[in-house]
């Protein structure tokens, strides 16, 4: 009996490739890419003060493009290629068709699909770092920071935890989709870089309102929905575990958002949209290390934790600790990404289900992956404690790596160009940096005395209409 023609193998569909898995992997990668462009581009552009809208959005757009060139040039092979040392791969290009059309190191799809999927993860990480630096970093310094930090920080974390040859991978750290590699890294790196770059103007630190809350919500929505690909693509197959990971992701996120909202209303008396977005982000981050290896009820408990602990550290503890107040972390990535990533990693070490770990890892030694709760329940307490120890070791390594490497990168760039913009430029923002303004027509600081009307009306035939239009533009 012959297979249907659409399932038969040929040169473009080799025997080892699963068309469904390949289609899902490309779809998941595209969803994560949409989180960056346009997701975080318009989230940052809407969430900052009006004079920083273009600069903030452009920092995200630049990082996305820059990382792609680094990734195919050397970053992918440093993260998932041949081992150089226990925590780092050998740099090499990922652009040859013979290499890209072969089977990926995991999964039943081509290496090209893996390169693209892992690229969008690599790209979103420095974009998240940018969230701590908006409103004062020199754009030229940012152009240098992205490739340097990607090369000397991100690739080390990715190889150590995600590559089968990495030392933390061999230790048994569970990081389902990037709670450590992406979120803990970006949170610590963003906070560290913010320390070296310096603060915004005092006026901007005191008052930094979003210039477009609806646009901010649109970006937040793309970020949330895009997480379907973020966590759903982590098993590298269109499997039952991928489905569970997607469901757990959205359940945890909704729980976290509602928890943050209730706390805001209880303490401040008003439901805050910005607070809800922060709760959404902490929920997404917290579930990421364990999305496909925990029960759905555990995802709810993780959401309650991610909606309350970062809320407390951001709104209460932050004001009491001098060092946290001193570092100008624009969008509080330390709380929303670093702390939420730590919480997710620890809770994954507690709630990870052995059966779900087997479905995810599909390796002979799957029994070593067991949450402490299940270790206590089944009499394998030492195995559960070992898992918790591995999770804590992963946290310690990523924190130290990003403090050291981010500091070295910033100090090196400082030898070439200033990290922070000059005071005069900081007062003006977009127009001084890029010669462009986000909302030029409605900018209340402009009078438009020389406005040229591009209208269907003829000025000679309808002088009163054109005169009225120009006078409206000149109002402030």
Q: Summary?
A:
It contains 20 helices and two strands. The protein has 476 residues and is mainly α.
Order of helices and strands: HHEEHHHHHHHHHHHHHHHHHH
| Beta-strand share of residues | under 5%
Low-confidence stretches: 446-476
Alpha-carbon distance between the termini? 78 Å
CATH architecture: Orthogonal Bundle
Q: What is the 3D shape?
A: globular
Residue share in helix: 55-70%
Major pleated sheet: 2 strands, antiparallel
- The count of domains is 1
Q: Please list the strands of the largest sheet in the order they lie side by side.
A: 1-2
Subcellular location: Cell membrane
Domain Ammonium transporter AmtB-like: 23-439
InterPro entries: Ammonium/urea_transptr (IPR029020), Ammonium_transpt (IPR001905), Ammonium_transpt_CS (IPR018047), NH4_transpt_AmtB-like_dom (IPR024041), RhesusRHD (IPR002229)
GO cellular component, one term: plasma membrane
Characterise the protein shown here.
The chain has 476 residues and is mainly α. It has a single domain, classed as Ammonium transporter fold (Orthogonal Bundle), CATH 1.10.3430. Helix content is 67%, strand content 1%. The protein is built from 20 helices and 2 strands. The protein has helices at residues 19-47, 53-80, 97-100, 111-130, 139-162, 167-171, 179-197, 202-206, 213-232, 240-268, 273-287, 296-320, 322-326, 333-351, 354-361, 372-378, 381-414, 423-428, 430-434, 463-473; strands at 83-85, 88-89. The chain has a two-stranded antiparallel ribbon. Strand 1 and strand 2 form a beta hairpin. Helix 2 (53-80) runs parallel beside helix 5, helix 9 runs parallel beside helix 11 (273-287) and helix 10 packs parallel to helix 12. The longest helix is centred in the last third of the chain and has 34 residues, at 381-414. The protein is globular, with a radius of gyration of 24 Å. The protein starts with 18 loop residues before the first helix and ends with a helix. Residues 446-476 have low confidence and may be disordered.
């Amino acid at each position: 009996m012959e297979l249907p023609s659409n399932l038969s193998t040929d040169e473009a569909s080799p025997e080892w490739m699963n068309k469904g898995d390949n289609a899902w992997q490309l779809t998941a990668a595209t969803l994560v890419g949409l989180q960056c462009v346009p997701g975080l581009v318009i989230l940052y552009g809407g969430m900052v003060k009006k004079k920083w809208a273009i600069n903030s959005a452009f920092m995200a757009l630049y990082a996305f493009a820059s990382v792609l060139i680094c990734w195919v040039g050397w970053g992918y092979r440093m993260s998932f290629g041949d081992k150089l040392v226990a925590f780092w791969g050998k740099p090499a290009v990922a652009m040859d068709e013979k290499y890209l059309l072969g089977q990926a190191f995991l999964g039943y799809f081509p290496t090209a699909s893996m390169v693209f999927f892992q690229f969008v993860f690599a790209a979103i990480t420095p974009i998240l770092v940018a969230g701590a630096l908006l409103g004062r970093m020199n754009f030229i310094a940012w152009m240098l920071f992205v490739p340097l930090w990607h090369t000397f920080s991100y690739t080390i974390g990715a190889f150590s935890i995600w590559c089968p040859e990495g030392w933390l991978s061999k230790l048994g750290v569970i990081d389902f989709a990037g709670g450590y590699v992406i979120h803990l890294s970006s949170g610590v790196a963003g906070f560290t870089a913010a320390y070296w770059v310096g603060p915004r103007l005092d006026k901007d630190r005191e008052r930094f309102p979003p210039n477009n809350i609806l646009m901010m919500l649109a970006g937040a929505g793309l970020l949330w929905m895009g997480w379907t690909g973020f966590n759903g693509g982590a098993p590298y197959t269109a499997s039952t575990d991928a489905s569970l990971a997607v469901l757990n992701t959205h359940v945890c996120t909704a729980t976290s958002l509602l928890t943050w909202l209730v706390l805001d209303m209880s303490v401040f008396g008003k439901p805050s949209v910005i607070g809800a977005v922060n709760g959404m982000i902490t929920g997404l981050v917290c579930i990421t290390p364990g999305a496909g290896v925990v029960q759905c009820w555990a995802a709810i408990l993780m959401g309650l934790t991610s909606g309350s602990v970062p809320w407390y550290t951001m709104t209460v503890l932050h004001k009491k600790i001098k060092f946290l107040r001193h570092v100008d972390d624009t969008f509080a990535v330390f709380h929303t990404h670093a702390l939420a990533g730590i919480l997710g990693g620890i809770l994954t070490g507690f709630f990870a289900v052995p059966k779900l770990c087997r479905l995810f890892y599909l390796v002979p030694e799957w029994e070593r992956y067991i949450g402490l709760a299940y270790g206590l329940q089944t009499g394998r307490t030492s195995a559960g404690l070992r898992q918790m120890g591995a999770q804590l070791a992963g946290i310690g390594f990523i924190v130290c790596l990003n403090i050291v490497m981010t500091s070295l990168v910033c100090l090196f760039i400082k030898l070439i160009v200033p990290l922070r913009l000059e005071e005069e430029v900081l007062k003006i923002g977009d127009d001084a940096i890029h010669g462009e303004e986000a909302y030029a027509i409605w900018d209340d600081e402009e009078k438009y005395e020389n406005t040229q009307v591009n209208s269907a009306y003829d000025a000679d035939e309808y002088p009163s209409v054109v005169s009225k239009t120009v006078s409206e533009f000149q109002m402030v």
